[in-house]
Amino acid sequence: MTPSKYLCSAYFFSLTAEKIDQETLLLLDDVTLTSLIPIIGLRLKFKKYLKNALDESIEERATTPTVSSEQQHRISVEQEAAFNIRDILLATPNGRGIVDTIENKHCISLKERQAMVRILVSHLIERFGENPSAGIKVSLASSVVEQFPCLKDCQGKGNEAWFSPGRYHRPATGFLEEPSSNNAQKGQKRKRKSSFFR
Length: 198
Known about the structure:
There is one protein chain. This protein has two domains: 61 residues, DNA polymerase, domain 1; 128 residues, no CATH class. It is 67% helix and 0% strand. It contains eleven helices and no strands.
């Protein structure tokens, strides 16, 4: 936004002579504007153009999202976190049996669910490290119930039994959370032990 865009060349020179640039142009008040543009008609036209320019500037800023690079990285990782649960399970000997049971019986036993959770949590840790974000765990839980609807919980979206993020200072819960938190605790204990023996 330049003053020359809104004024004839004579007023552009008076604005530049007064060292009014883009930043100070937005700060002009009525008193200053009266001294710069004494002719009422031209001053009113300028104020109209200035208001339009301010509105455009505000709209531009409102439509441009401000996301930190850390947030952008987290969002892109979570978007890439598409899980093919069938493939993850079929890649392991125990997982093949679980897939067969789900497809034939449309349910799994407690022992099979625990084995399935171990396989999925191992996959999470391999792919995202020891502390994957809650968004990634939600994505995994959603993938489980989307690809195997018989494993849906009867309440909510159906994936809360698999993972529900913590809210209001309460911890996260679900089948996928318990082994993850246990692995994180074991990792912390290992770090403490190894630093003790050094």
